[in-house]
Amino acid sequence: MSYISIKVEDLSKQYRLGVVGTGTLSHDLNRWWYKMRGKQDPYLKLTEVNAHSTKASGNYVWALKDINFEVEQGEVLGIIGSNGAGKSTLLKILSQVTAPTTGVFKARGRIASLLEVGTGFHHELTGKENIFLNGAILGMTKSEIRSKLDEIISFSGVERYIDTPVKRYSSGMKVRLAFAVAAHLEPEILIVDEVLAVGDAAFQKRAIGKMQEVSHNSGRTVLFVSHNMGAVSRLCSRGLVLKEGSHFFDGTADEAVQAYGQVNISSTEPDISQRKDRQGMGDFRFTSVRIENEAHQPVEEIRTGSRFFVHAKIKAESISPKKVYAAVCFRDALDNRLFTLSSSLFGKRVSLEGETILTFEVPRMPLSEGLYLCDLYIAEGRGDTLVQDYVRSAFKIKVYGNDYFNSGDPQPVGLDRFYVDFGLVKNHDKEIIGTKTKA
Amino acid sequence: MDKNQDIPWSLVVTPKSNWLNLNLREIWRYKDLVFLFLKRDIVTVYKQTILGPLWFIIQPVLTTLVFTVIFGNIANISTDGLPHVLFYLSGIVVWNYFADCIKNTADAFKANENIFGKVYFPRVIVPLSTVLSNLVKFGIQFLLFIGVLIFYTFKIDLPAIGLDIIILPFLIVLVALLSLGCGMIISSLTTKYRDLSFLISFGIQLLMYATPVIYPLSEAPEEYRPFILANPMSSLIESFRNIFLGTGEISFSHLLYSLIFTVVIFLAGLIVFNKTEKTFMDTV
């Protein structure tokens, strides 16, 4: 039977802006004076919502405002939100590093947090000594650690260096050792912040496996904060989206990832009309570009295997209409060209006149998880002749999920670059194992 | 709403904290951490040094020699007829314990900022383990003192150590609690007001001159004595000397004053520390 393992009620956290310095003492005295007379803290009223980009007029902001949620035992809750949405503040409160300004949070069971692994490593101590120290900091007793020592050492994969001071370790080794300690904690509630961003692909795979094992097999509650949407939709059963310190969305992990795409709606249509680093004659110019998912919602992230659209807006700088070849070219972060959506592949040109919107449709995103850069291109001739406008890295597209066929069994991170449609049958159609014909 | 009210919440966090919320059960659960911190403090200080733990001894020896030359031979301050070395060493050993405890616990929040910012454990563990690791250091220096004392018993007549020695543990516990209390107050305040960390390093040095470390209480002018005795460390050091060297005085009333002072400071320290530990991450 499952029970509520975490309950958060009206949780808020206030921070003071600017330098803590002159005025600190006077604010403290003032606050104390109000308190002595049984009045509310005068500075709580002056607080504003935590919108980073707008200049605040007051001195205090709410990093978190009236957060309410419950987590059931055994649930894996993903917490997502853009930078500064309050994720880390929430985790800090939940892991008791700092106290809330108002509100209550209750929990059943021991809480352990992995906010950046390797906390409290002492570089002069050996690997083994650090296992004990780090384990104890995370709340294990000496005998618990001793009973798991061999397991931890072999999980970390640094057996040879275990009696060497940690200062001689490579940074990857340190992280692996630290994660190994943390992975062997046995709290009822585990808080994880971005640990999967470290280590090589093989280690990430092991780390993800360990997290899944922790939540699925032993029924422990996990709170997972990440910018990695793929990891969130793969690992979490539920998702909570924060926006500017308040509760924005709560639902299944996939819905939450979608909702998160909406949070950044303003930035999903980058304005490229002012870009100077472009080539071409310039009779026609790209002004903006937008990516939409299958539901025609503007997003920044596309799930592997899903349908998406690229809308490019083109403005005429001259009156005469032109016929051009139009293309979107996909490149990876290392500048390798991957594929191009070009009208020249159909042997056709598009006629442009005044303001035009071109929509490219891709029925299934073939790329694996990662960040990709896209170029926009229009030219009157083939083979880079009579180029009208060419904007390199006009926009970015983030791909997540790695589950091309929606089989529920995604590929591990970082192995394949592409997925293709294919069919697999046994004994001439006796048994169809995978899609036989292309959709 | 809550389906399972029969399972009690094991943790409830609210903005307000109790005044004296010393959760002893929790500290007990983390007892291994106390000893691991203790070990870390002792083992790592002199790693990659040639003399290693000998530094624990070299430091008081050199200080004693300097004091002997300057205060004993040049300034000619009386040492109650005792050999200079023995007199100064006895004061330095006790005073160092007090001073080091304060200096190290006063740093508690700032020095462990990166740990405190990431993980929760009862924060009191840090000053507690600091006081204990300094106790080990004190133990080593105390053995040095006993060694020197034995050496001198062959040279000169020293009064035999009497039954008074049973109050020695009491004295040491008082020094420990007093410095722990002061350290906790200072560490809590420095998270917000950094000024104190400047004050503390030379403040302790100045305080030493208000304590009978380099002079016996009996030599202090009558009108200064109340001020010197207002310092709770004075009667503790005087008593320590009395136990081993026979000079100085053990005054019940003075010790009682030190006891009360210590208890008050210690409780105040706990309260302030408890209040700070919840929010210090926002101000440090």
From TrEMBL, chain A:
The keyword DNA-binding does not apply. Keywords: ATP-binding, Nucleotide-binding, Transport. PROSITE patterns: ABC_TRANSPORTER_1, ABC_TRANSPORTER_2. SMART domains: AAA (SM00382). GO terms for molecular function: ATP binding. PANTHER family: TEICHOIC ACIDS EXPORT ATP-BINDING PROTEIN TAGH. This is ABC transporter ATP-binding protein. It comes from Autumnicola edwardsiae.
Automatic annotation (TrEMBL), chain B:
It comes from the Bacteria. Keywords: Cell inner membrane, Cell membrane, Membrane, Transmembrane, Transmembrane helix, Transport. It is found in: Cell inner membrane; Cell membrane. Residues 51-276 form the ABC transmembrane type-2 domain. It is a multi-pass membrane protein. The keyword ATP-binding does not apply. The chain crosses the membrane at residues 54-75, 81-99, 120-153, 165-186, 198-217, 255-273. The keyword Membrane applies. Belongs to the ABC-2 integral membrane protein family. This is Transport permease protein. It comes from Autumnicola edwardsiae.
